[in-house]
Amino acid sequence: MPQSSYKSTPPRDPENRHTGAAPARGSAGLDDLLEIVVSKRLKKTWRVEVNFKTGERVLTIPEALADPPQEVKDSLIRWAMMPMTRRARRNAEFVNNKRKMEETIRAYMESCGVARERKSRVNPKIFDHQTKGFVYDLREIFDTLNRGYFNGEIKSYIRWGQADSRTSYQTTRVDNDGNPFHLITVSGVYDSPQVPQYAIYGLVYHEMLHIAIPPRTVNSRRVIHGRDFKAAEKKFPFYDQWIEWERENMWRLLKNAKRRVKRAKKAAKR
Ligand SMILES: [Zn+2]
C-alpha cells in the first residue's frame, strides 16, 4: 500500500489543548506514533487502529483523502490522535469536537464527489432563512456575483455555517422529490464587521466557481483547483487581496469567534 505524502505534517494547534486532541509530543514524535496508509478499498470513510501496547496508531484513509488541503489534513491527524478512553467519549466538548472534525473531512470528500453514506432528503427552502447574517446577506452577494460573473446561470442555495466554523464548502444535496441541488455553506466567521466586503465576495465567488467548474478526474486523480479554475479565479479583481486578507486575519477572527461562542454557551447554561 502506498504511503501518504503528508505523514510528516504535525498538527499545529496550540489553541486546542482542551479539545480532546492528544497533546503533540513535538513534531518528531508524531511520526513515530501515527502512520497513515492510503487504502484502495476504502471509499467513503476512514478509520484509525491503535496498538494499545505501544501507543502507535495507523490511520487508514481512502484515496480521496490522500492529498487534501492543510485544514483537512490537520483535522484528520487530530481526529486520529484523539484519546480513546471511555471518559473522553462522555465529554460533551470532545464529542462536539470530533463531530466538527468529521464534518470538515466529510465536506471535503463531498466536494471531491464522494457521496455520503446516507443522503437525507431535505426541503431546500429551509436554507432561504439562513442567508441573512448580522452583517452580510449571502443571497444578495450571491446574486450580485451571479449577475456580474456567471450570466446569472449559477443555481444554488447558500447559507451561513456555524458562528465559529472557518470552513466554507459546496455540496450537492437531494430535495424531497429526489432532485439534487447545490448548497454553499459559508464560514460563520466571515459574518463580522471586521470582514471587508471584497473578502466575503472573494470567498463566495470561489465557492460559486466550484459549481461552474466542477472537479474532474485526470489520471485517476481528482482535480479540484485545476488550471481552468485558477484562471477563472483571476477574473475577480480582488481575489489575491482576499487570499492575503484571509492569511493575515483569519486566525484572529476565528479565535474571537470561538471565544464568543464559548461565552454564549456558558450564558445559556445559567
Ligand atoms: Zn476551493
Main features:
270 residues; alpha/beta; binds zinc ion; 8 strands; single chain; 8 helices; 3-stranded mixed β-sheet
Describe what this molecule looks like in 3D:
With 270 residues, the protein is an alpha/beta fold. The chain folds into 2 domains: 14-111, no CATH class; 124-269, no CATH class. It is built from 8 helices and 8 strands. The chain has helices at residues 26-33, 70-80, 86-90, 92-111, 138-149, 197-212, 227-233, 239-269; strands at residues 34-39, 47-50, 57-62, 157-160, 169-174, 180-186, 216-218, 221-223. The strands form 3 sheets. It has a 3-stranded mixed β-sheet with strand order 1-3-2. Strand 7 (216-218) and strand 8 (221-223) form a beta hairpin. The structure holds zinc ion (ZN). Residues 206, 210, 225 line the site of zinc ion.
Helices and strands in order:
Blueprint: H1 26-33, E1 34-39, E2 47-50, E3 57-62, H2 70-80, H3 86-90, H4 92-111, H5 138-149, E4 157-160, E5 169-174, E6 180-186, H6 197-212, E7 216-218, E8 221-223, H7 227-233, H8 239-269
Parallel strand pairs: 1-3, 4-6
Antiparallel strand pairs: 2-3, 5-6, 7-8
The site of zinc ion has 3 residues, from helix 6.
Count of distinct structural domains: 2
Instruction: Tell me the strand order in the biggest sheet.
Output: 1-3-2
Low-pLDDT sequence parts: 7-28
Percent in helix: 40-55%
* Ligand names: zinc ion
**Gyration radius over CA:** 19 Å
Number of strands: 8
Mean pLDDT: 84
